[in-house]
Amino acid sequence: MTLWDHLPVLVVIIPLMAGPLCVLTEHPRAAWIVALAAAWLSFAAAVVLAAQVSDTGTISYHLGGWEPPWGIEYRIDTLGSYVLLIVTAIPALVLVAAKESVVHEIPESLIARFYGAFMLAFAGLAGIVATGDAFNVFVFLEISSLSSYALISMGRDRRALTASFEYLVMGTIGATFILIGIGFLYMMTGTLNMQDLAERLPAVLETRAVRAGFAFLTVGIGLKLAMFPLHLWLPNAYAYAPSAVTAFLAATATKVAVYALLRFLFDVFGFEFALRDMPLDHILMILGLAGILTASLVAVFQEDIKRMLAYSSVAQIGYMVLGISLASTTGVIAATLHVFNHALMKGVLFLALGAVVYRIGGVTLRDFAGLGRRMPWTMASIVLGGLSLIGVPPTVGFITKWYLLLGTLEQGLWPVAILVLIGSLLALLYVWKLVEAAYFEPVPEGAATVREAPWSMLLPIWLLVGANIYFGMHTEVTVGLATQAANELMGLRP
Amino acid sequence: MNFMPGHFNYLVVVFLMMAGFYVVIAQGNLVKKLVGLGLFQASVFILYITMGNLAGGQAPIIAEGVTAYSSPLPHVLILTAIVVGVATTAVGLALVVRIHEAYGSVEEDEIHAEDLAQDEAPLDADATREDQAGQ
User: Fold this and answer.
1) Do A169 and B24 touch (CB under 8 A)?
2) pLDDT tens per residue, range A310-369
3) Structure ipTM
4) Measuring CA to CA, how many Å separate A37 from each of A116, A239, A343?
5) B103 contact A CB<8A
6) Where residue B8 sits, what CATH number does that domain have?
7) Which of A15, A26, A53, A191 ranks highest by number of CB atoms within 10 Å?
């Protein structure tokens, strides 16, 4: 076996090894270099993997050479390679911007440990995507969650501590629910390999244990996903975490939970059972819509912009859940596209907020007064990211809204389509509040003159802005991959 | 098989799980919440270990005259889950220590009251924020 054959596990191993290495360096700059190098290596591995998957189809990697279902299998299919790209690209970019931002926001003695926790969270998220073993999902989920609790608690405000504790309690309940669910499935089938589960489950689908396991799994992943009304941990956690952490988690953590939901609903249980026999499609649709509308509405009234965007994240998750609930190819395309696209928009917005915190010191609406003149490049990126959030062409936000509307109209769900549009209008309202403050209000008197953010922050922000517009105009790549992924998900058990 | 003896372990699991869950929700003290969380997790350990057992099964070591073995896999799985549980408790307790340093309390309602007081005096909050930013 050459090194190339080990790529599926290297994507996870590289950041996992880099974590302790960062802590051992004990030096802020050295830890940053280790983290950055590992993140880009992992991203490179993910790019090669994506190319391999599109060439030769699904890759199955046997850990330690043990044949599945006895050994642990890492399985990268189209959906996996697609999500893996975003999960590795975002931290690689965030780390470029993090250098300045972290020095500014975190005490020097903690920086090496900060990067250590950051890389562990990264490894956990990549692991959830790469693995084909149900119990492995739980372990990686806890690796990423435990390190994110630590990361969130490093925020400057003391409320970061309570937010992190709240997240710890709810996250642990969610993870334990997932553990119970996997336990029930194991009890009935005697296997933990997802492919093997998918083959053995149909025979026992009608038992109470499998149904209970299904319910536990869905609620557990729903908690991790911050699906309305299980989203209560998210706004505080995102609002008080350090800027780099918010950008990283907002763009990846909930996306990986969506991936896990897709895996279990479509691959393991099969959508016929999950969304047709069980009434989950209706439940998800109602919860998705409720999430979109209430979270968007709450976002409009927020003064703290980080908190506003955190609520907007809850709303965006609603769109993904809605896409899944349609249980059609178009719906799944919309959901997978939005996983990718939402990571791009929220990456831009939270990184730009990090730049604002770096220069201005805060991100309340008052801090934004006249910001269009004080930090023109940063503010321009926020506007473009906001347009993508609303769904204005030619941004990626438009593409997902388009597929979501197509999916709802296919099934004649006019009221749902109208509610989605209302959600977009609410997004317009809260983005407009920012634009109004930044461009139409004068710079407050006596405010210190600030310079534009350093290039190390602007570069990743504008790379992501470029991606937002590029993938909005050249849709072949993303839509092509999403369509293939959706076909694989829907076709496994037609 | 009679219901009670056959399902005794599962009944214990359900009781422990609900007791732990109730403590997490109902207690305002953060340390007690963690105790509840630990209880909640421990119940799942018992669930896994119970399902690995086979009536009349022996330890999974090949020996003369033994035909039925208990499955060792759930034990191995739950070893991992126990480690995760310990780590969760450790992180949780570390957070409680930090919360106690920052707020001087580990009672949920007192912490909320302090946060509210901070929100209602935004000028002070801004001042502390600039202090921190200046450091």
Assistant:
1) yes
2) 999 999 999 999 998 888 888 888 999 999 899 999 999 999 998 888 888 888 888 888
3) 0.86
4) 13, 28, 21
5) yes
6) 1.10.287.3510
7) A15
